[in-house]
């Protein structure tokens, strides 16, 4: 098995520091999806930029870059945050979960499966953030109701208008988790 930490660090060293090539880049370690990732980042880079650019975790979308749309939502120690609003160097040792790391192995997380089954996905741009917010809600409140789901997704902007389907999907995932 390849050690992801040493792989990312080795790549940064061998390609001239392309993962944070700026002269003011600093080394950091991010705990992403259960793996320590060592890389160099510019102090001004947001977590969203580092996840997408340096770590190639493109499920995290950048929409507004102002924390207003929710497309960049990831879980930080299990809590949804807008990753465009946090500098990567400020994450510290906290655990980051992206949409790529939500489900173990090849199986989908119950919320992901419910989004598919209940047509809560249209263009898909906002979907990763919505899924992560719903998963975090169900983790902290397994018996969530429709109002809880609406509150959990209130910071997300979906141009396709899938909100009723998202609520239905989250409630279906809650029922699956109970079984």
Question: What can you tell me about this protein's structure?
Answer:
By secondary structure, the protein is of the alpha+beta class. The protein has two domains: 4-101, Ubiquitin-like (UB roll); 110-178, [2Fe-2S]-binding domain (DNA polymerase, domain 1), CATH 1.10.150. Helices cover 36% and strands 14% of the residues. The protein has helices at residues 4-14, 47-54, 110-117, 127-140, 146-152, 163-178, and strands spanning 26-32, 35-41, 73-76, 79-82, 95-97. It has a five-stranded mixed beta sheet with strand order 2-1-5-3-4, with helices on both faces. A hairpin with a 2-residue loop joins β1 (26-32) and β2 (35-41). α3 (110-117) crosses α4, α3 (110-117) packs across α6 and α4 (127-140) packs parallel to α6. It is globular, with a radius of gyration of 17 Å. The N and C termini lie far apart (34 Å). The model is unreliable at 1-18 (pLDDT under 50).
């Amino acid at each position: 098995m390849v050690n992801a930490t040493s792989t990312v660090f080795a790549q940064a060293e061998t390609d001239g520091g392309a993962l944070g090539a700026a002269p003011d880049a600093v080394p950091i370690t991010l705990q992403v999806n259960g793996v320590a990732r060592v890389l160099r980042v510019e102090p001004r880079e947001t977590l969203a930029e580092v996840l997408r650019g340096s770590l190639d975790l493109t499920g995290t979308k950048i929409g507004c870059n102002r924390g207003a749309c929710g497309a960049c939502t990831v879980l930080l120690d299990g809590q949804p945050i807008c990753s465009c609003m946090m500098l990567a160097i400020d994450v510290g040792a906290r655990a980051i979960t992206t949409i790529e790391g939500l489900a173990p192995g090849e199986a989908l997380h119950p919320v992901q499966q419910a989004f598919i089954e209940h047509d809560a996905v249209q263009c898909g741009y906002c979907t990763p953030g919505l899924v992560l917010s719903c998963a975090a809600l169900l983790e902290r409140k397994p018996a969530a109701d429709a109002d809880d789901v609406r509150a959990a997704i209130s910071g997300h902007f979906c141009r396709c208008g899938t909100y009723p389907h998202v609520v239905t999907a989250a409630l279906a995932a809650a029922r699956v988790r109970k079984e």
